[in-house]
Automatic annotation (TrEMBL):
Protein's organism: Pedionomus torquatus (Plains-wanderer)
PANTHER family: LIPOCALIN-1 INTERACTING MEMBRANE RECEPTOR LIMR, PROTEIN LMBR1L
Pfam families noted in UniProt: LMBR1 (PF04791)
Protein name, as recorded: LMBRL protein
Cellular compartments annotated: Cell membrane; Endoplasmic reticulum membrane
């Protein structure tokens, strides 16, 4: 219903640009994780352990300087939003979704706890995937399992593989549906 009420500009320009932006962010995330996997295989320094002497402001945490730092911020924000959307889209947690002016207190508390857990996991998540090397203000990089090569490697490979699988599945199904719709109208 919202798609039919959308203006032609939204349908023909806004939605395709939003989809291309999401595809680009997902692709960049997967590429960064794949490069991090290669770094893990070649260099032990790529492990997401804590930085002992972080010279904040003196050295860029990205090899691309300011552009890379901005890209890291955008990717972390994208991962945050996509993890919240994915959390509330999973069948187990759809009942936790708040309803306007009809949300009981237990559901509000459940939402607060869920968002707190997701936001606390985000620094470790982005650091383990190699999206950023920044340690933030906590000791997130000092977890013992972040020094375990097998755990970090499998975590990165799982993210890259499953994200690529979801991306290919979504894109190929959309293309397949459009082809069926296009050829179905002719036949």
């Amino acid at each position: 219903e919202l798609r039919h009420r959308a203006s032609p500009w939204q349908r023909n320009l806004g939605y395709p640009l939003a989809m291309l932006g999401l595809l680009a962010l997902t692709g960049i995330s997967v590429l960064i994780v794949c490069f991090h996997v290669l770094e893990l295989l070649l260099d032990d320094a790529a492990m997401p352990r804590g930085i002992q002497d972080a010279s904040l402001g003196q050295v860029s945490f990205s090899i691309f300087g300011s552009f890379g730092a901005a890209l890291q911020v955008i990717l972390i924000f994208y991962l945050m939003v996509s993890s919240v959307v994915g959390f509330y889209s999973s069948p187990l947690f759809t009942r936790l979704l708040p309803e306007r002016q009809d949300t009981p207190l237990t559901k509000i508390i459940g939402n607060c706890v869920s968002l707190l857990v997701l936001s606390s996991a985000l620094p470790v998540f982005s650091r383990t995937l190699g999206i950023t090397r920044f340690d933030l203000l906590g000791n997130f990089g000092r977890f013992n399992w972040l020094g375990n090569f097998s755990v970090v490697f499998l975590y990165n490979m799982g993210f890259a593989g499953l994200t690529t699988l979801c991306l290919v599945k979504k894109v190929s199904w959309a293309v397949q549906a459009e082809l069926i719709r296009a050829f179905g109208e002719d036949g």
